[in-house]
Amino acid sequence: MSRSVSQHALPIRAEDDVVLVRRKVRELADRLGFSSFAAAAITTATSELARNAWVHGGGGDAIVEEVERLGQRGIRVTFTDEGPGIADLSRAMEGGFSTVRSLGLGLSGSRRLVDEMELDTAPGQGTRVVIVKWKRL
Amino acid sequence: MSRSVSQHALPIRAEDDVVLVRRKVRELADRLGFSSFAAAAITTATSELARNAWVHGGGGDAIVEEVERLGQRGIRVTFTDEGPGIADLSRAMEGGFSTVRSLGLGLSGSRRLVDEMELDTAPGQGTRVVIVKWKRL
Amino acid sequence: MRDHPIPILRVGKTLLVTIQIELRDTVADAFQEDILSEIERMGAPGLVIDISGLDTVDSYVARVLVDTGQMARLMGTEAVLVGMRPEVAATLVRMGFQTRGLRTALNVDEGLALLGELLGRG
Amino acid sequence: MRDHPIPILRVGKTLLVTIQIELRDTVADAFQEDILSEIERMGAPGLVIDISGLDTVDSYVARVLVDTGQMARLMGTEAVLVGMRPEVAATLVRMGFQTRGLRTALNVDEGLALLGELLGRG
Ligand SMILES: Nc1ncnc2c1ncn2[C@@H]1O[C@H](COP(=O)(O)OP(=O)(O)O)[C@@H](O)[C@H]1O
Ligand SMILES: Nc1ncnc2c1ncn2[C@@H]1O[C@H](COP(=O)(O)OP(=O)(O)O)[C@@H](O)[C@H]1O
Questions:
Q1: Phi and psi of D6, rounded to 5°?
Q2: pLDDT of res. D1
Q3: Ligand 2 in reach of B47 Cβ (< 6 A)
Q4: Which of A30, B13, C81, D72 could cysteine-pair with D79, CB 3.0–4.6 Å?
């Protein structure tokens, strides 16, 4: 199990909040000494998922955490919203599928950028996504 | 709720009527001081949907309205026809799907051009589409 | 030539078509066919279609324009679409329209210059 | 020109846009529209978009950039995206982003040189 070292809760109630969540993650990645590639990966995935919570979920919350497991440091970000949920999850995860004017790469692309990704959703039940990126040793 | 300021009903009984509906919308956009981009967006969406009512719906009606909400001005256009309706709506909305020699961008493209779009249809029950574009402040 | 009001001019060996009216279904086919017949009659190696007069181009008209260019190309004539307005370009791309190898230029002069280069008379 | 803080400069006949701020939804449309209007106003045959200042480009911003290039192309203007950082390129491709005919160059100078060649004034 991974241990939470520090934790910041940030609201996603406006489009500008997406930017604030992304910045928080970028700062943490820099502070933990992530490579520029790993930092871009977790920051970009954060941007995608925070935007989804805003655009599709009608707003929600993000928790940005520094985590530790067996001496390894990492970043965990949890996104929750009380929106409509995702009806056809396998299709949404396939990539290239979008219900808005967009590329539909948010979910499928984010999974490729992080080490762990967990998705909980059901129609009418909102959506919860957790991503983790570890610092390479 | 938005309030209707003025209202014009126009028939779509011939191909030339598509042009007349489009002109009406363009005039209103110019009169309300829409930017050239916003005017092109609502005029083009109107053209797509009026053409659909004509080509797929076998003709119908359009109502072009000036609307107002919280001091903001906008254009609302309602298209109705008594045609066959759209059986597979999610497929038709995806874009790139067409039952005629066409690009299949009418429905999906129109949604991307306007601020609000509502679609009511069922097989054998005709089709009703409402679009709204607000003037940027 | 049939009775549709889209003039086809000749500039050197190039055909210049200026679209100013609405391209309705009934006009579109005649428009395409007249251009292609004129290309054959003149042996025109280049075609410029000027749409600077159009403030709205829906997916139907876009399709007619792209198709006309492809027909000309099949005959061996280079086609260039010129003069698309900013709001028309923005609208088409936002709708998801794909340009698929369409040649474009800012205006008639640039279109003619591009054809000159393409056809080795630059 | 509207009130968004993305400067559009002129280098010869080419437009140079340097993006340094976050392209939020509300800014993105205005950004595109200002570039297109400026292309028309200046008759600019070339556009360079410099993103060397961006350390994150998500799929939304990537889409806005590619769309802007396609809009410019429809108008007849060649667009070149320059200065993409290594980590941004890696991230976009890992996400499955397709470049779809986007022209690129290492930096502004290379971008201007590429445009010079493309536009026959190399
Ligand atoms: N938080 C969410 N709530 C509801 N639906 C979502 C959420 N996130 C994603 N989706 C759905 O999954 C689809 C694919 O999402 P994504 O891959 O991020 O692409 P995009 O956001 O570009 O459409 C979205 O179009 C939307 O329908
Ligand atoms: N008013 C309508 N009545 C019946 N069917 C429609 C209507 N509008 C659209 N459709 C159906 O949806 C499909 C997609 O429409 P659209 O995206 O406008 O593309 P296109 O009209 O180019 O085929 C059409 O091919 C048609 O089968």
A1: -110, 105
A2: 45
A3: no
A4: D72
